[in-house]
Write a structure and sequence with these properties.
By secondary structure, the chain is α+β, with helices and mostly antiparallel strands. It has helices at about 135-145, 145-155, 165-170, 185-190, 195-205, 215-225; strands spanning about 10-15, 25-30, 35, 40-50, 65-70, 75-85, 95, 100-105, 115-120, 125-130, 170-175, 230. The strands form three sheets. Strands 1, 2, 4, 5, 6, 7, 9 and 10 form an eight-stranded antiparallel β-sheet that branches. A two-stranded antiparallel ribbon has the order 3-8. Helix content is about 25%, strand content about 20%. Helix 2 (about 145-155) crosses helix 6. The longest helix has 12 residues, at about 215-225. The protein has six helices and twelve strands.
């Protein structure tokens, strides 16, 4: 069953599910602060709504900032994290319907930039990839990865040698120690402007045509950054 998780129904995935990040990070395509809605009906098991800002040294549940856990009718548990302070609209113990407004996208806990961190756990408490629940608005962006990557590759300069460390420092950005999957978080981790407008400049500088923040474009840019081969804008 597919569903939306943003009231505006314009989800864009900025950090994919993998072995290190067993969740997906989502923003609205227009970059606006957006309400989060329930993927499915269920009982609200946990609400945290008092966290006022970020804490990049936090551990455990504190990394989620403001979050809500819902035990869904299908037996799975959905966790919606990093919500804006004071924005949570639901209460512990209440039953909510699919599409109920839960709260608003924010930047609390161990978060870099405003986004929704979405986790799904099955009945055995194993985290699953939430992408299977999202509407084609999101999944289409993944099915087009191959086509977009082909476009990028056809307009990318041949790989050159980067043995000169001074040259890398002056002309290239590098985040070789970054282990996750978000270009926004990776840029922030090295103190670089991660705004959409600057990422668009980076894309142009690195021959990524028609940048619009798609999954494949962001992954390609992130891979360059991890390799120390992302040209400064």
């Amino acid at each position: 069953m597919t569903a939306h998780v943003l009231e505006s129904m314009n989800e864009v995935i900025t950090n994919n599910y993998d072995s290190d990040h067993k969740a997906i990070d989502i923003v609205a395509s227009d970059k606006k602060e957006t309400n989060i809605i329930a993927l499915d009906g269920g009982k609200v098991n946990k609400v945290v709504n008092h966290v006022k800002g970020t804490n990049h040294q936090s551990q455990g549940l504190a990394t989620y900032g403001n979050y809500v856990k819902v035990k869904q009718d299908n037996g799975k548990t959905a966790l919606y994290a990093h919500m804006k302070y004071g924005s949570v609209k639901v209460k512990e113990g209440e039953y909510i319907e699919k599409g109920t407004v839960i709260g608003t996208i924010g930047e609390t806990g161990n978060a870099y930039g405003k986004h929704l961190h979405l986790e799904i756990q099955n009945e055995n408490n194993v985290k699953e990839n939430p992408i299977v629940y999202l509407n084609n608005t999101s999944t289409t962006k993944n099915t087009n990865v191959q086509k977009e990557n082909k476009t990028i590759e056809n307009h990318t300069n041949p790989t050159t040698s980067y043995n000169n460390s001074a040259k890398i420092t002056q002309e290239y950005l590098s985040a070789k120690n970054y282990k996750h999957g978000s270009i926004v978080d990776a840029l922030k981790s090295i103190g670089i402007n991660s705004s959409y407008s600057y990422r668009k400049k980076l894309a142009q500088k690195n021959n990524i045509l028609n940048y619009h923040g798609s999954y494949s474009q962001n992954v390609y840019m992130l891979n360059l950054l991890k390799e120390g081969k992302l040209k400064k804008a």
